[in-house]
Design goal:
The chain is α+β, with helices and mostly antiparallel strands and 307 residues long. The protein has helices spanning 3-10, 58-76, 94-110, 160-167, 173-180, 186-192, 206-217, 239-248, 264-270; strands at residues 20-22, 30-31, 37-47, 79-89, 114-122, 126-136, 151-154, 198-201, 220-223, 255-259, 279-282, 286-290, 296-298. The structure holds adenosine-5'-diphosphate and magnesium ion.
Length: 307
């Protein structure tokens, strides 16, 4: 099977998207954004052994490669439209490709996102996806913009993916899904447009990613560790261990955002599954844990960094 046969067989699907004039098969795709919209564009690479354990099922690799990109679009408040797939494969393994494409398109179809091109090369397994989505013109969620007094909210459970990674083959299928099939919070992101002051998706750990909001906004934050929405499986761990996974584990792909206190009821009504705010934005730079006595202790756990 040559490169072109591979593309045709596994990735070239007819797309009927209003924003796509020309899809796979030419030297470039041609897009037609609506005149009342802006486009958000992002790119993420997954490398075997680093972003997913060796031995991860092909369908889960395909799913996650797109999920992490859709999560970035969610964090901007964008409605996903399409993506490009740059694939490096050691060999044209049909069993792998079939599974990979099934997982990839399962998520793509669930959100109406079209694959409009890419590149295919031989090399160590790595998957790079570039995705784009639409924003109402002039609007987006940014990391900068958090204001003193804002509530800090975490859009979903944290720590499950990190626990699944630690447990390896011993993880239950439900827990393992946190790691392999993160659910990008696209509806939440779009619902936060014009409501949240700042937002980010949690990929490197809640503490590190909330830290990016604080740095970009020039403010600080204090969190209540007892308010963190821990994945239920973390209940089996001791408190310190559970908090470390929840704050520094990473791979959660939930949104973390800040809003004015007056907006909380509105958010809670629109997204009833979200748990109570986990903290508040303060003037003093840095990330702190609040004690009952009002004392601020610097949070020392930090997230994952590649370098
Ligand atoms: P070029 O040599 O002009 O870069 P290619 O031969 O690399 O063209 O690709 C041919 C067509 O197949 C292009 O439309 C490209 O976007 C598409 N394509 C290549 N690899 C992939 C892939 N992994 N998934 C989807 N489309 C792909
Ligand atoms: Mg090419």
């Amino acid at each position: 099977m040559n490169e072109f046969e591979l593309i045709r067989r596994y990735f070239d699907r007819t797309v009927a998207g209003a924003h796509c004039v020309l899809g796979i098969g030419d030297d470039a795709a041609v897009l037609r954004p609506r005149s009342d919209e802006d486009l958000a564009v992002c790119s993420d690479t997954l490398i075997a052994g680093r972003h997913f354990p060796h031995g991860t099922r092909a369908a889960d690799i395909g799913y996650k490669a797109l999920a992490v990109n859709l999560s970035d679009l969610a964090a901007m408040g964008a409605r996903p439209l399409g993506f490009l797939l740059n694939l490096s494969l050691p060999e044209a393994d049909e069993v792998f490709l079939q599974g990979f494409a099934a997982g990839l398109f399962e998520l793509a179809d669930a959100h109406g996102v079209a694959l409009l091109g890419g590149d295919t090369t031989r090399g160590p397994l790595s998957i790079s996806i570039t995705a784009w989505g639409a924003l109402p013109r002039g609007e987006c969620l940014r990391r900068a913009g958090a204001q003193v007094g804002d509530l800090i909210v975490c859009g979903g459970n944290v720590g499950g993916a990190a626990l699944a990674l630690r447990q390896g083959d011993a993880a239950t299928p439900d827990l393992r899904a946190c790691l392999d099939r993160p659910q990008p919070q696209l509806a939440l992101g779009q619902g936060l447009l014009a409501r949240a002051h700042a937002a980010i998706d949690v990929s490197d750990g809640l503490a590190a990613d909330l830290g990016h909001i604080l740095d970009a906004s020039g403010v600080g934050g204090v969190i209540d560790q007892d308010a963190l929405p821990l994945h239920p499986a973390l209940a089996m761990l001791d408190r310190e261990d559970a908090l470390a996974l929840a704050l520094a584990g990473g791979d959660d792909y939930v949104l973390c955002f800040t809003i004015a206190e007056a907006r909380w009821d509105e958010i809670k009504t629109a997204f009833p599954e979200i748990s109570a705010p986990i903290g508040r934005i303060i003037e003093k730079p840095g990330l702190y844990v609040g004690g009952a006595d009002g004392k601020l202790d610097p949070l020392t756990i930090s997230g994952f960094r590649h370098f």
